[in-house]
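We modelled the chain as a single entity of 536 amino acids. Its sequence is:
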Amino acid sequence: MVRLYGSYNGRYFIAQFPGEVRIHRGSAFQWTRPVSNVRETLAVGNNGEVFFRTESGVFVRLPYDRNAQLTKVELFRARPEENVRLGKLRINADGREFCYEKIQPEKRLSEKIFRLLGKKDGDGGGASSHSLNLLNPRSSEALSFFSATLTPGKDDRFLWEVSPYFIYLVVAQTEKKGLVFQVINIPDKAVTAEFEMGVQNVTRIFVNDQGTVMLEVKQENAVTLVIVSANGKFLLEPPPNYRVLHLGADWVAFQTMVDPHIIVRRFDKSLVVTADLRPLAKLGVEYRFLVNDRGDLDLVTFAEDVVTVHNTDFRNLETDAKRWELLARQAAAQEEGKVARQAIEEHQERVERMAREEKQREMMTDIRASAPVTSLPLELEPSSEWPPRLELGLELEEPAPRTSARGSEPASIPLPLELPEETPGPLKLQPRSLPAPPAPAMSSDDIARQLEKLQMQYIAGEVGREEYYRRKNELESARKNATARPAAAPKMLEIEPVSKLDVPRSEPPAAPPTLGKSPRLELGRSLRPPPGEDSR
């Protein structure tokens, strides 16, 4: 998280991050310096120097230099046994003078008596001395101009505050009737005003360079602001959850934190201006209001790693707040438009995706409706016989025995073939080699493959709908023509005798068959006996 600070003259600003600080002169970025072990940022001087308090309570400063390092500031020198510590610290708006509170144990007469008696040192009843010192680094010594002793158990209080340019100092001490306040003019070293409050629960003191004092008093969960000026005494009720931006000559500027507003009221409780700061939060920027020495406002914003300074004043603050509201509405409208455009784009993408899916479903439906029903190819089981047996599916009709005219002996059947002189061997059926019929231009399998390829191209979108159906009709017409074309005549078989020489020697010669009338081979309509042989 970034924290913004500025000088009282409105010239220098810093953006503090964990471990580093960025220096700006106005809105212009100057440089970045590393800082570590920093607990609190005290002030930014009109000279550009930045002052911090470390975790160990050491007061350090960062000079206005690109190569500067944190430098410890020695406000006073004390030995460790003196148990001196630094209290509240204020820095002049110019960044050149320091007003600090030095606290040390009070040495009283009782402790001296204990020391003379040889006993341990007493603690002085816990009393402590508080002194206010003014230090100018150009001078050699600090100027001590006020001191007070506080005793625990007596409700002693020591409150003080100094104006931005170290002109007026307000000091409060506990008395019997309450708190007594003194207003001291530092340059004149004189008390200009003194007044008494009958209450003890004063929590904060504010004083400006005109000598006006404002006290924050809490009573029964209620806060009342008591203002003492040259014109009299005033009571003012602050808004809830507030912080005081500035104490002017006759007005007070508040900034509420929970419901961000700037409210300016005069000492007589009349409202000067109110401005709504919620649009700044809607714009998503880190901001801080700073009141400069002219009584004007500096709005410092940090967004997108850029520090911007907007100058305004309390007279024009309400108009500027309306402008911030307009900017916030425009930013909200742009964001809503961006969300709406994103929703429209998502809707269009969803509609296009659904249209593509619907088109794919229609294409698949058309393809399934027009796809031919093809039979699966038959896979022949491997046979252990070799050579494979030729299965022609031919049935031989057993001829009726012919009888002679006498009716006693069967008639002799003349052989249609002349057998060789050697002992005939077994007969084998050998196909006659006939010329192959002319192959068609494209087979049914090729047409089926072409149809399948065409379907894949149609699904992939490579072929349009009209082109797909045109080529599909052409391929189906070609398939019908190929189916209607008469099949080629199968090879004709002729029976030729095979001699012993054609039979392997390992086979024993078979007994010659007893032939009657030669059987008639029924080979179907497409088979005809070879030329030169008459069927009987």
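As a brief sanity check on the tokenised model: The longest strand covers residues 98-105. The chain has a mean pLDDT of 77.
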